[in-house]
Amino acid sequence: MNAPPATPARPLCIKLHPSDNVAIVVNSGGLKAGARLEDGLVLVDAVPQGHKVALADIPKGGAVIRYGETIGYATLPLGKGAWVNEFLVELPEPPPLASLPLATNVPAPLPPLEGYSFQGYRNADGSVGTRNILGISTSVHCVAGVVDHVVALIKQRLLPKYPHVDDVVGLNHLYGCGVAINAPAAIVPIRTVQNLTLNPNFGGEILVIGLGCEKLQPERLMPELSPEAARRNILSLQDERFTGFQAMVSGILEMAEARLELLNRRRRETCPAADLVVGLQCGGSDAFSGVTANPAVGYAADLIVRAGGTVMFSEVTEVRDAVHLLTPRVVDEAVGKALIREMAWYDDYLARGSTDRSANPSPGNKKGGLSNIVEKALGSIVKSGTSPIQAVLAPGERATTKGLIFAATPASDFVCGTQQLASGMTLQVFTTGRGTPYGLAAAPVIKVATRRDLAARWHDLMDLDAGRIATGEASIEEVGWELFRLILEVASGKKPWSDVWGLHNALAVFNPAPVT
Amino acid sequence: MNAPPATPARPLCIKLHPSDNVAIVVNSGGLKAGARLEDGLVLVDAVPQGHKVALADIPKGGAVIRYGETIGYATLPLGKGAWVNEFLVELPEPPPLASLPLATNVPAPLPPLEGYSFQGYRNADGSVGTRNILGISTSVHCVAGVVDHVVALIKQRLLPKYPHVDDVVGLNHLYGCGVAINAPAAIVPIRTVQNLTLNPNFGGEILVIGLGCEKLQPERLMPELSPEAARRNILSLQDERFTGFQAMVSGILEMAEARLELLNRRRRETCPAADLVVGLQCGGSDAFSGVTANPAVGYAADLIVRAGGTVMFSEVTEVRDAVHLLTPRVVDEAVGKALIREMAWYDDYLARGSTDRSANPSPGNKKGGLSNIVEKALGSIVKSGTSPIQAVLAPGERATTKGLIFAATPASDFVCGTQQLASGMTLQVFTTGRGTPYGLAAAPVIKVATRRDLAARWHDLMDLDAGRIATGEASIEEVGWELFRLILEVASGKKPWSDVWGLHNALAVFNPAPVT
Ligand SMILES: [Ca+2]
Ligand SMILES: [Ca+2]
Ligand SMILES: [Ca+2]
Ligand SMILES: [Ca+2]
Ligand SMILES: [Ca+2]
């Protein structure tokens, strides 16, 4: 990307919906008190970039309206042209889960989109990977040091001999022992670790390194393996055939080489866009997220769905306050109930920890102009586009349907990424307003900046600049199409910036159960 | 270590206390039905190594007694010579917390031990490190990929220029954002991450890499820094002075080099053993843990306390069922109440997750002969030796007293290790019956095997063989002294096996609060 002017010269605000009584400041550096907008409105306060300006007088207790929805109530009388910051907006109650309309406004199927494809790795089970990776999973964190050790050796000694294998990735995680494995909520981390091994990017040739005495026995981790396949894919360090550390290392390298030989025979082939499984999330959101990056992502999501592919959106705490806008869109009542079940589960999970949804947003969100979780949620769900919601997954469940899916996960970036990998995601699109070097080792991540200034400053970390939408230099549709084409390129092997630099976050398996 | 015969030739069982009605089988491979012990007892079942034999007829519902304590009740009548396995022993109720005797049997101070010292790095605050490490901490996991990237560069480009610096360690963790930071239990991970930066092995020269928009702002992580020191030690990637990734990398390398120059001026100096801060834990315990390794560790713990040093024992779920043996040993009622507070907190934490203490032990513990958590706990607390308990720390609190301290942590090996590092531990002693490659990057870990066969097979992973105690080849006192001397050597710079191979687990900060 070049680094064009990051801000319009004239004072510019964006109002999104006809009934909104606030608009957000586009200009980098914000606007000063006295600045006059095109429509004649004069700012009475200095307002930072991304923050809200009152478009009309709002009485104390009056609704503050953005996206055509109430994002809160004024705690003081707000004059026209005033800065509407987080301290002036009281959080409304969340939508009550018992009385939501289910499948009352299911969108008509979008018109099919033909003729788009990518170069992927087709697996025996019909799924398609965007990468050809030797994955080395673990049944317990105890073995993590050994996995790091052998991954380094494999990269150095073996990988150069197998040029058609893209990478070797150690799937270390903190689960597996020292946990309440029979607690009701333990089902979440267990199936997450299980389903991670099935991610299409590992081509069905994953290794599992276990210790031997752990609670999550390796066989439990890959329950569908035949005993013969288990001998091929699973190794326990406590196995009495190993005398000394070097024997363990040799044993792992031998198993790894056998997998590498098989993986190396694979070639990319032309696959329809219907074989995409794209995960969506945001991190470090700002007030532009819901105006620029997320609508463009929503447009691209619709394109993928129209092409027959799979799109997952996630992040329960960022959906909760806008769930009343989603339940009408589910394909049937069962899916609607599943959506409500996940919201209720999370409400309860937070309550058990004596907290609630106001724990989100972060200071950076607020600095970026997001007053509260309602405003954040309204901007967040825009990523889902306009298609019917076909299915809802509990955390870590695998996707089995095409189309738009709500995959319940925490909003935490690395937890969401890990859970979507378990659900079968092979490429992630990540929108950010504040900026993050986030990346995943097991699947490429395309990062979309909400603002021109971020995209310009982080020119070698951001993959796409959606800030042009706010300045009027590009439309939502244009950036949506750009993103769709970039998804196809990255799915075909192009490296996004996080992979150019090798910036990868750890797996963070969601464990809502206690540790012991 | 050489690899001498791992098992006695004659059938051998160990009874620990005069009132015990079970003994455990010492022989590798176990004993067959019909085997005759020295005292004439004939086994009626085959009994695996480490498992229990009934020394007398035990009626249904009768107490099964080991360590002179009831470890459970027989679920069936057990004949003399029978195998007493986990299915035949019912878990008793845990000691009720409301009625425990506090400070009723405070041990007399042990006789002082003079003349022992090690070569350590003395810090400005009076603490002493066993290593001279450049620590690079993080306020949030988002930056983990960047930290890994710069740590590799520092090792390659900078560390060779600073030969007196032992290592550079990235302190990545999963906390910092996407968490309920205002939940009551969030105090635990917050102070853990804070106190990690103060570990004596970092010499007060730690760097903190932040993102900028995270909930746990870097300034909150190091609250005692002056603004000037904060500029020297803290860097946020979102700082607008950085244009592009390479600028961030250069910024970090510059700060790192300034720290390395200071750390490189440090030299080891003779420090009394009173400056040791040794953490204790076990992992992959078996029935020998409480007979061989843990008693030897307990003996060494007493030597450290006698020398004026600090010893931490931990692992709440493995102490809970033997807490009635600890509360009499606390120095005063306040410390006793703190010990009970930590037990009650954990009971409640497990109950909130709809589980209880029976979630521990693991399958490997059971395979090793430990029937249940009571038997495991009785064997575990032996590590604490015989001195008075001077203080109790809530998870992640820093030690401020010398002597024996109970530092409350989960039993999970890597969580316990992380929490003890936060409490100021500079060297850890780890006992294991099943074997684990566990290690920590920030402090050396001495691994003590409970059995000869494990020590022989894992000859280059285990640092000390306590199995000789079971076979009668060495006494508890002898192995205890060996361990004490090894602690002084390792504290002076000798590398235990995990550091020879570079096998290190990730930090696993204890977060009992929800993620969001
Ligand atoms: Ca988000
Ligand atoms: Ca997120
Ligand atoms: Ca990647
Ligand atoms: Ca333990
Ligand atoms: Ca442990």
Describe the structure.
The structure is a homodimer of 516-residue chains. In chain A, 28% of the residues lie in helices and 17% in strands. In chain A, the strands form 5 sheets. The first copy, chain A, has a 7-stranded parallel beta sheet, with helices on both faces. The first copy, chain A, has a 4-stranded antiparallel beta sheet with strand order 1-2-3-6, with no helix packed on it. With 516 residues, chain A is of the alpha/beta class. In chain A, strand 1 and strand 2 form a beta hairpin. Chain A has helices at residues 144-158, 187-196, 218-221, 227-233, 245-263, 293-306, 333-352, 363-367, 373-380, 413-422, 452-457, 468-471, 476-491, 497-501; strands at residues 13-14, 22-25, 52-54, 63-66, 69-74, 83-84, 89-90, 117-122, 128-129, 133-138, 167-171, 207-210, 234-236, 269-272, 277-282, 310-313, 389-393, 403-407, 427-432, 445-449, 464-465. The first copy, chain A, has 3 domains: 1-93, Archaeosine Trna-guanine Transglycosylase, Chain: A, domain 4 (Roll); 133-263; 270-501. The N and C termini of chain A lie far apart (49 Å). Chain A is built from 14 helices and 21 strands. At the A-B interface, helix 1, helix 7, helix 8, helix 10 and helix 14 of A face helix 1, helix 7, helix 8, helix 10 and helix 14 of B. The structure holds calcium ion (5 copies). Residues 281-283, 285, 315, 318, 380, 411 of chain A line the site of one calcium ion. One calcium ion binds next to helix 14 of chain A.
